[in-house]
Amino acid sequence: MSDEIDLAAVTTCTEFGRALTVARERAGLSVRDVARRVDVPASTVGGYFGGAHLPGLKPANLVEDMLRACGVADPAELRRWVETWSRIRRSRRGSSDDERGAAGGGWGPGAVPGRRPGPGGDAGGQSADGGPRRAPLDQARGGEIAAALTIAPPVALLDRLPAVRGRGELLALLTGQLPAAERQRAGSDTIGSSGSSRVRSRMHVLHGLGGIGKSTVALALAATALDRGVRTWWISATRPGAVPAAMEALAVELGATHHQLRRASLPDLVWRRLAALDQPWLLVIDNADDPAGDLGLPGGDVLDGTGWLRPLTRPRGMVVVTTRDSADWSRGMAGGRTPPWIRLHRLTPLADPDAGQALRDLAGDAPGSAQAAESLGRRLGGLPLALSLAGQFLAEAWRMPPGFGGSTIPRSYPAYERSLRTSGPWSLLPDFASADPRAQAPGRRRERELVGPTWERSLSLLAARGQDRAQPLLTLLACLGGDPIPVDVLLNAEVLTASPLFPNLRAAELWGLVRALAGHGLIEHSPTAAGGADVAHQIRLHPLVRDSFGRAAHISGRLEDYLETITALLVHATRRHDPRDPGTWPAWSMLAGHADAGLMMLQARRQWGLAELTEGRLPPELLVPATLAARFLRATGRLTEAAAAYEAVLVTGRRLFGDDHADVLSAAHDLYRVRAAQGRARDAEKGLRTVLDDRARVLGPDHPDTLTTQHYLGRTLREAGRHREALGWFTRTLASRERVLGHRHRDTLTTRNNVADVLVEQRQWDAAEQLLSAVWTDRVGTLGPEHPATLVTLHHLARLDHRRGEHARGARTAAELVTACRRVLGPDHPRTLAAVCLHGELEQELDRLPVARADLADAHRRSLVVLGPEHGTTQRLARLAGRPPSS
Description:
It is a single chain. The chain has 887 residues and is mainly α. The chain folds into six domains: 127 residues, 434 Repressor (Amino-terminal Domain) (Orthogonal Bundle), CATH 1.10.260; 192 residues, P-loop containing nucleotide triphosphate hydrolases (Rossmann fold); 72 residues; 158 residues, no CATH class; 100 residues, Serine Threonine Protein Phosphatase 5, Tetratricopeptide repeat (Alpha Horseshoe); 105 residues, Tetratricopeptide repeat domain (Serine Threonine Protein Phosphatase 5, Tetratricopeptide repeat, Alpha Horseshoe), CATH 1.25.40. The protein is 55% helix and 5% strand. It has 40 helices and ten strands. The strands form three sheets. It has a five-stranded parallel sheet, sandwiched between helices. Helix 9 packs across helix 10. The longest helix has 23 residues. It is elongated, with a radius of gyration of 37 Å.
């Protein structure tokens, strides 16, 4: 080895580090490999190989141990290395302050020019125990921070963490940008005019939600940098004043004198010395969640290039910043763009396979299969910090005796997920702002300390900027459903300003709060194309953010205010969109997942065993949005989903308001309409008769809602083949509707349409045609030719032609009807399937059925799914398609 390395020519700390690096690389070892073998922190050993400082006197024989780890075993060879090390130590000890400062990196962490080495140590940055000396800062600047400050990367933490999952592409990009030890990047790495050589994208900003893994990625990068011999420093910005104090420590390590520290601008001094380094270096600034406050100078801006961050002018260096706030990196820039010397990287939740593997890294195979781990990872939203907590929990659960804790301790991935779903997230996950009043176990407290502050700190920063209403807005958003929240459709400043939560809130402030929450990663705000030139703005919440802040509404002491505000927003949004109108269905597709949010808040409260609100403390229109959303499901033909939605409204509504509440009766009426459409005529008739009696008693016999139930009772009887009885109900309803609502009201037209349908069954062809033609003309004039109600009348006209033998004309009408239904309602809608069936029957009469067999077979397959094998439409389609009825 000494034949290749002329140890006699090695005279400086930097040259000694390079010689050590040659020995290490010949042995095929990384810095961390050597650090593990000599039991010294990797950050410290990395400084030896990088030439930042010499190995110290302790632990004893450190130089020999490092060399033996690198395969140097010959005693004479080892003696020459030790002699070289001792000679450099003696020469450094005798150097003048000016020589040390000019060395540009010859001083280790904490070394102060002119200071004598302490007992057992040297002036080159080693403490008595051989670790990096903590920088002795000016107490007037550093205060108590100085006493506990280190700028060494805490890479030893990686030994206690599972493998970094799902960040391979980002880490590959960042490691590819690490400065090289002996060569400068090609010209493609530079931008600017011909007279400049500013390096492109050497300033990287990792941003995202608290707990998303930004610091872990930065730490993995720092470990790689140390392994490559890159001088690496780590600055934690979590405490006020931490960045200036750490930068002073960095200046000392780079050779700044006390005189320079007292007289010079510290940011200028640090950046001059970084620019003068002839070695590759990496600087990580972690948790700079208030970029303007942490990294900008008083009166300055984080992007003006005069603060703690500046454009890199040489390819020797690289800076990585982790932060939650993505907004400050484009503020004030033209077009909202980030300056070219900064590159942003947004960290998103882990994909299901990576999330599942992260759990298995910690908990292993015992808690369940890979699929079960992925399912739990999905429920945890792919948040690395939550995955770590869950994995550690399950790993510890498997160390317990089998009977310990009984069924209260989930020991498998599915059991953990069930506990989250049934017991509320606070049973296992960290809490925010307050604890579950029923669970104060010390273990829970520790978990809350891990996650709660990560989000609370972001809100504290926003409050300090005057955006103190960010927290109640986030809490309100968390009370909505789990679907993306349509900003344009649902968030209304006029409704919010009437809430006691947001008095005098203006639209501009609301927008600013949304942008601020998105900037800190607490929500994801994204404009998406909504068709044409329109743009729909949507908000998404991470599942754990939604869990935590949704719970905060219950323990805030202002649950009624949140419930009232949620209901007011939903009522305002849903009542603007008639669910029977296809033109509103795009808006409803975004609203439907939130319409039952108020009901879900109360259901969760019951599940958690908290006191239920009394009727006097409930919003009077609590049931309205969920009922309208169920009508949207019914109007779009999703009958099974609609029935389930109505049943959920009824369960909560009857418990809270009683059977006779008008909105409870409305939901009951709608449920039995769906039952009739599903072919369950007996259930529908019984239910509608009960609702009719209740509505007549509570609202009066001529109330429009009572007449609606009366009409649908007649329709159910008509579907059951009881035509004479149905006509009696329709006739009475028509007379009342014409008197109460008017001759051309859409509900009056509906009853006239059904009267004509019964006349068709009674073979009164002329009277039926005259009435249907009049209704069709009125509906086209008021609703349009392709409104679902107009298409119903068109169906009756085609059916009239079928019944009286006008098969050719009826087939033409039915073909137009099928085309329109598919376009407006979709191929799976029950009315589309009925239209296909009618068209098939007409084609059969014309002996043209074989041509339509494939179309009929497709409709039959759809009807089996949508309506079931027992429904009349399904059975008729089966016969037309030549299939057994139950196939």
